[in-house]
Amino acid sequence: MTTRSPRMPGILPALPEHLSALLFSSTERRHLDAGEVLFAAGDAGDGCYRLEHGLLKVVISSPKGDERILALLRPGALAGELAVIDGQPRSASVVAVRACELSFISRAVFEKYTRQHPEIYRYLVNVLAARLRETDNAVAAASFMTVKARLARTLLELGELLGEEEDTGRVVVRHKIHQSDLAAMAGVARENVSRVFSDWTRRKTISRSSGYYCLNDIATLKRSVDS
Question: Of 45, 83, 109, 216, which is most buried, counting CB atoms within 10 Å of its CB?
Answer without folding.
Answer: 83
